[in-house]
Design a protein that fits this description.
single chain, about 375 residues, alpha+beta, GMP Synthetase, Chain A, domain 3, five-stranded mixed barrel, five-stranded antiparallel β-sheet, about 35% helix, elongated
Length: about 375
């Protein structure tokens, strides 16, 4: 977009995109822009050939003219007046409400419109003193706005812990989101006095290098974590992200070992593992296997067919089977070395009854049979 330029009205403030209005402008030119609250002086920070169309949103203001020397002198005079009026406004605010702290005051070139920003611990309704501030400062229209501590530091300015001007008042156009975790990721002490700025909030510069620290640290164990190694358990004492060094202290020997982060990163998860992994995954498996071994009595194996007699396998328990088992000595008594016990053979009950009847004066057939048997058994006499 060749017909748009970026203009900034306060140092490190937001960029407003305006139409050049037929003027040939470049970076650094002072211009006068007409607004609904009077004329304001600004300077070009983005040339027409540097504007990307995707960054331009909303209606565009039109640049009225290129600022003259008189306009620049009037702008500087209004800035000095604003600095003097801050003291008067703060004294008046202290008498009215001690919670108020005036952050900044600004005027247009004519001095008819003004803007006042203040800081308070709680939400304060400013309708009652906006009219009183307008009368005190001698302006026709005054806009009052409550801001935070960072905005007050941006408006007042000052020096940071590094000895240089505050980033928010020199080049930062917006405030990043800061958390205490960013300080921990950069191995900084969580002491608020060391990681807080002049505004009393966490340093904005904590967000500048945190991604680089996280990339260098990678998946290394955190300080205080316990790990298991082939030579025993150890505790992580410190991790130097910039030097890429990790210090471990072993529990058994108390020896402190310092090793490179690349070497530990290559072994982490295999030879060197988190203690939580062994406690939550490996130890339950070992306990399960131990319980299985303790509750197992014996392992049963199938018995071969040769150890059982053929008669038993066939379901036979007759006379021939018993005689063969007794003769060969393959029964359980022979295997144990004891003399086999003879089973008493008993005939049929009916046959026994017939024999008893023959002996006690039975039939003639029975006596003849017995006599014949006796005659056959005796030899004839000479």
């Amino acid at each position: 977009m060749d017909n748009v330029v970026g203009v900034r009205f306060i140092e490190a403030g937001p960029i407003s995109y305006c139409s050049p209005g037929g003027h040939d402008l470049g970076v650094g030119d002072y211009v006068i822009v007409g607004t609904d609250r009077g004329e304001r002086l600004g300077w070009v920070v983005v040339a027409p050939d540097q504007v990307v169309s995707a960054t331009v949103e909303g209606p565009l203001r039109v640049i009225a003219r290129i600022a003259s020397e008189e306009d620049v002198d009037a702008w500087r005079a209004r800035k000095r007046q604003a600095q003097e009026d801050i003291g008067r406004a703060q004294a008046f605010a202290t008498r009215s409400d001690p919670r108020l702290r005036v952050a900044s005051i600004g005027y247009d070139l004519a001095g008819e419109h003004g803007e006042l920003q203040y800081v308070a611990g709680d939400r304060v309704e400013h309708d009652w003193f906006s009219r009183q501030f307008a009368e005190l400062l001698g302006v026709r229209d005054l806009r009052v706005e409550q801001v935070g501590d960072r905005d007050r530091a941006k408006a007042v300015g000052g020096l940071g812990q590094c000895g240089r001007a505050l980033c928010c008042s020199t080049w930062m156009t917006s405030f990043p989101q800061i958390s205490i975790r960013m300080a921990k990721d950069q191995d900084l002490s969580p002491n608020p006095s060391k990681i807080s700025g002049v505004c009393g909030r966490l340093l904005c510069c904590l967000a500048f290098e945190v991604e680089a620290y996280r990339e260098l640290r990678g998946d290394l164990p955190k300080v205080g974590k316990r790990v298991t190694t082939p030579v025993g358990r150890a505790k992580v004492l410190s991790v130097n992200t910039l030097k890429q060094l990790v210090r471990l202290r072993f529990d058994e020997t108390g020896e402190v070992v310092e090793m490179g982060a690349d070497e530990l990163r290559a072994q982490y998860g295999t030879a060197v593992r988190p203690e939580e992994l062994e406690a939550t995954v490996e130890e339950p498996r070992r306990q399960k296997e131990r319980r299985i071994r303790e509750t197992t009595i014996a392992v049963l194996e199938p018995v071969g067919a040769g150890a059982v007699g053929a008669g038993a396998l066939n379901g036979e328990d007759g006379e021939d089977g018993e005689a063969a088992e007794g003769a060969d000595g393959e029964g359980p008594e022979a295997a144990s070395g004891e003399e086999p016990r003879r089973r008493r053979r008993r005939g049929r009950r009916g046959g026994r009854r017939r024999r008893r009847g023959g002996e006690g004066g039975g039939s003639e057939d029975g006596g003849a049979e017995r006599g014949g048997a006796g005659a056959e058994g005796r030899e004839p006499a000479d």
